[in-house]
Amino acid sequence: MYLNIFLYGILLMTFSMVVSKRITALINSFGLQSFFLFLFTLCLAINQHHVELYVVAALLFFLKVILIPRFLRNIVSRIKVNENLGLFLNPLLSLISALGLIYLAYLFTRRIMPVDSFEGCSLIISLSVTLIGMFIMIFRQKALTQIIGLLVMENGLFLAAASVSGGMPFFVEIAIFFDVFVCVIILGVFVYKINTLFTHIDVDKLTELKG
Amino acid sequence: MEIILIIGTILLLILSSLTVKGYRRCSIINAVGHFLILILAFKLVAKIINSGIPVQCWGIFYADALSGVFIITISVINFASAMYSIGYLPQDIKEGHIKEKKAKVYYFLFNMFALSMFLVPMLNNLGFVWVAIEMTTLVSAFLVGFYNKKTSIEAAWKYIIICSVGISLALFGIILFYYAVSRQGGINTLNWIDMITVAGKLDPNIVKVAFIFVLIGYGTKAGLAPMHTWLPDAHSQAPAPISALLSGVLLKTALYAILRFFIITNNCLGSQFASNLLTIFGLLSLAVAAGFILVQKDIKRLLAYSSVEHIGIISLGIGFGGIIGLFGALLHIFNHAVTKSLMFFGVGNIVKKYGTNNLNAIRGVISTMPFTGIIILLGVFALAGSVPFSIFISELIILISGFTKGAYFAAAAALILISVIFAALVNHFSGVLFGKNMTNMPKTNETLSTKVSLLFLSVFVVVFGFVIPNFFFKLFHCAIGVIKGSI
């Protein structure tokens, strides 16, 4: 019951990211999505009495709900970037594309497992979140949104791992977490570098290398 | 035991890059350290192929003959690159591209990069292999953006973003594999030894989609077309010794991960499905590379696209399959690494001397830099697949396996594309080497360390053209055993 509510909460936040026009809104939605993911994992941990899952949930809370959003907000305020995201597709079209992606995920999942089970349902949602994360990376102009898109993809993958197979082996999970965190920090460093060298962070203007 | 020693040596090198004063001393220590690692790697692999059983350590590390192929390749290229760096970095400092302090950062990153690459073929858990591959991206992004110029930062950004997305898709594939293993196999593990024992029981539908995700994901990192778009940018903007590492071994580590899942998929589905996919991607890579090589104007991008070509040839070899095809593919992995690194080193010297990457502006290398010129002349023919050199042998083996297996169309198309690339490469480089130099450039001599690294690699290029040493023959033989599932 609760699991389903949190699952749809994750999907809802993904939609709100697709339609948001400002970076701060995007970061807030990402934080909320991670929070739902945290609640979802916590529920799983309580249901299955896994000590390891508690640890994973705690890590999720500290990294993705608190640290990473704070870090991203910090970047936004430090480089005084233009708040507008610069959409290649307007919110309505983006929303329609997102619905298309969800249908794609549904078609895909139908091939490999029954879709009316809890597992099938969460695989559809996790795959759609992953695909929509990719969509955000491609159709938004700012370098920061690419980082957030990547994080959304990782959230989708995490959901898949947690719900479909009851969590990956513990140390692998920890290692992946660590990797994601390091990746975000490094990307943040590069955003600073891009900002100082180019005086903007619009990735669609990074076109010097061709051919 | 050797595994621990190799890892330990690299950790010591990382430590030394932080503590030792002066980058010159650092560079010497680095080269000596990597020579030591080279010896250890050969000892480790000799142990594996002589005893016929994989080396394991603490349940974390695992190395069989297939890992051996990659460990040898990585250690050879790492040593050559460490050697070449001794002469290369001082020039960068003299020309003001980097400060003296940053040279030490270079050695720190170099060894972190080496560590992450060595971990890939040595780890037992395929989830950890994923982490190690992501680590190679993160570390090498700093090396790609090392010069802190606009172009290099742009290349680094694209590199890290595209590869991270790709590798996320691979993770999705791994999760699906894990799901299948835990459901149908009944064990909750990603350990290679356990996964391979239950591979036959997995649900074919899940394995199919999982393998496609893994292939697309790791294929991005391996530089298979059409996911190769980061590759020419990153290879052309990195410092020359790093370009050699990127193209020689970084791409191969991703290929290693694909091979592991390829084996599981084959055990489950039979060899047809995965082989066909690899053949298609291989041909596509060859075609894309041929087009871009024909019209290329930038000398380092030319070599980068040539990497796409060779990765295509390797995956064709794996796709054709059979003992002959796999032998060709494994041999080609080593040959390409050695030859391409040789070319990147040579071209690195040229770019330093002429101060430009433009193919049309570089003329008459053979008279201005005789040593590098001769090496490049040898390298171009070797790279293009001309007769007495190593790549000719492996390409020939791969094509023969294609024709004997009845894949006439694929093999014929590959043959035509390879000939086109041959002509384009020779055409481009004949101008570079023998064209008339208008400005009166003085002759230069390379430093001793540069010469040593170039000669070290060219020995492999020439010797493998005539005879494959017994050690390597046995190594490839055992590795094929691993892929075929007889060990």
Which secondary structure elements does this structure contain, and how are they paired or packed?
The complex is a heterodimer of chains A (211) and B (487).
Chain A (H helix, E strand, L loop, with lengths): L1 H18 L3 H26 L2 H29 L11 H22 L5 H22 L3 H22 L5 H29 L13
Helix pairs in contact in A: 1-2, 1-5, 2-3, 2-6, 3-7, 4-5, 5-6, 6-7
Chain B lengths: L1 H18 L3 H29 L3 E3 L3 E3 L1 H30 L5 H23 L3 H19 L5 H36 L6 H7 L5 H19 L7 H8 L2 H30 L2 H23 L4 H22 L1 H33 L10 H4 L1 H15 L5 H16 L2 H27 L13 H19 L3 H15 L3
Antiparallel strand pairs in B: 1-2
Provide key terms for this protein:
heterodimer, A: about 210 residues, mainly alpha, 7 helices, about 0% strand, globular, B: about 475 residues, 19 helices, about 80% helix
Describe the structure in your own words.
The complex is a heterodimer of chains A (211) and B (487). In chain A, 80% of the residues lie in helices and 0% in strands. Chain A has helices at residues 2-19, 23-48, 51-79, 91-112, 118-139, 143-164, 170-198. In chain A, helix 1 (2-19) runs antiparallel to helix 2 and helix 5 runs antiparallel to helix 6. Chain A is globular and about 50 Å long. Chain B has helices at residues 2-19, 23-51, 65-94, 100-122, 126-144, 150-185, 192-198, 204-222, 230-237, 240-269, 272-294, 299-320, 322-354, 365-368, 370-384, 390-405, 408-434, 448-466, 470-484; strands at 55-57, 61-63. In chain B, helix 13 (322-354) packs antiparallel against helix 15. In chain B, 81% of the residues lie in helices and 1% in strands. The longest helix of chain B has 36 residues, at 150-185. Chain B has a two-stranded antiparallel ribbon with strand order 1-2. Chain B has one domain (2-484). The chains are: A mainly alpha (211), B mainly alpha (487). Chains A and B meet through helix 4, helix 5, helix 6 and helix 7 of A and helix 5, helix 6, helix 8 and helix 9 of B.
Give the strand content of chain A.
Answer: under 5%
Overall geometry of chain A comes to globular
- Considering residues with a beta carbon less than 8 A from a beta carbon on another chain, report the largest interface and each chain's count: A-B, 41 and 51 residues
Percentage of residues in helical conformation of chain B: over 70%
Q: What is the C-alpha radius of gyration of chain B, as a whole number of Å?
A: 21 Å
Distance N terminus to C terminus of chain B? 22 Å
